[in-house]
Write a structure and sequence with these properties.
about 300 residues; two-stranded antiparallel sheet; 2 domains; TIM Barrel; eight-stranded parallel barrel
């Protein structure tokens, strides 16, 4: 519900809600959400979490990222379950056909194919209510910050955020600086701008790229304020150690965790890699402590 500035100045917000929403239970829920947004607690273990993302089939095409094993969404669902991930990210079609209910579900409600070139634009393809009917505990939405179409994505995200919060579920913003106006999408300035954009648009969590070191990434975490920060896993790293070092830096910077896809489900032993990730994220292992590393056999 939109509350104009004059109402905030002249009336108590609760009185406005009381007038617009006469049912007591509905008033109480809206008043609470107007202050805090929606909780991410279902995805957290001691304040941290890791998600397994699998929306690359739409975004990149099956011939870019998949092999005979990981092209099967059932295999990914099995990794999410056995790897004890805090959330699984699916587009609605995969959620309809493959979600098993064992890991909290995040439904991506927009997406685009990789065939068209030019300034990126990603439109909504699933309603919040339908995502909830599939079992979603949160919805995700991608914004291409810096695209000439960013305003349209801002507007669409705004509607989705309000609908999700009214339904009591959080919204995660994938904020990817992209387009002709963006020269370096992993610079401290650009990544922190992405994090701050998510906060100011009302995201409960933001998924952003890593800047390359914990010192500069900590500025993005600060810019995100009370929005939780997740590192985007990105393309498969050259070695396991390279990837785990990135995750270590993200945690040192104060982030909540990561949303990883290809670095896990393209790996020859994804469950063991998930174990290594958990040691860093949840046990706060540092580089001087023994961490179970897996050798990259690919």
């Amino acid at each position: 519900m939109f509350i104009p500035a004059y109402a905030k100045d002249k009336l108590n917000i609760r009185n406005v809600i009381h007038r617009e929403y006469p049912k007591k239970r509905e008033r109480e829920k809206l008043a609470k959400r107007s202050k805090k947004g929606a909780s991410m607690d279902v995805f957290l273990t001691n304040g941290r979490s890791m998600f397994l993302a699998y929306d690359q089939g739409l975004e990149h095409g099956p011939s870019t990222d998949f092999n005979d094993k990981n092209i099967d969404p059932s295999y990914i669902m099995d990794i999410a379950t056995k790897g004890r991930f805090n959330g699984i990210v699916f587009q609605k079609g995969l959620a309809e056909k493959y979600y098993n209910g064992k890991v909290p579900l995040i439904v991506k409600v927009n997406g685009k194919a990789a065939l068209a070139k030019g300034e990126p634009m990603s439109r909504q393809n699933c309603s919040v209510q339908y995502a909830i009917s599939l079992g979603a505990k949160a919805v995700g939405y991608t914004i291409y910050l810096g695209s000439q179409f960013e305003g349209e994505m801002f507007q669409e995200f705004g509607r989705i955020q309000e609908q999700a919060h009214e339904a009591g579920i959080p919204v995660i913003a994938w904020i990817y600086p992209r387009g002709s106006a963006v020269q370096n999408d992993t610079s401290k300035e650009i990544v922190s701008y992405a994090a701050r954009t998510g906060l100011e648009l009302g995201a409960d969590a933001v998924k952003i790229k890593y800047t390359g070191d914990p010192q500069s990434f900590s500025w993005a975490v600060k810019a995100a304020g009370k929005a939780l920060v997740y590192m985007s896993g990105g393309p498969k790293a050259p070695t396991d150690q390279d990837f785990l070092n990135q995750v270590q830096g993200v945690i040192e910077a104060g982030a909540t965790g990561l949303a990883v896809g290809r670095n896990v489900w393209q790996h020859p032993d994804p469950i063991r890699l998930a174990d290594s990730l958990r040691q860093i994220i949840f046990q706060k292992k540092n580089k001087t402590e023994e961490t179970v590393l897996v050798q990259d056999e690919s």
